[in-house]
Amino acid sequence: MWKRLHHVAYRCTDAKETVDFYERFLDLKLATSIAENVVPSTGERYPHIHVFLEMADGGSVAFFELPESEEMVPDPKHPGTGFSISR
Question: What's the fold here for domain 7-77?
Answer without folding.
Answer: 2,3-Dihydroxybiphenyl 1,2-Dioxygenase; domain 1 (3.10.180)
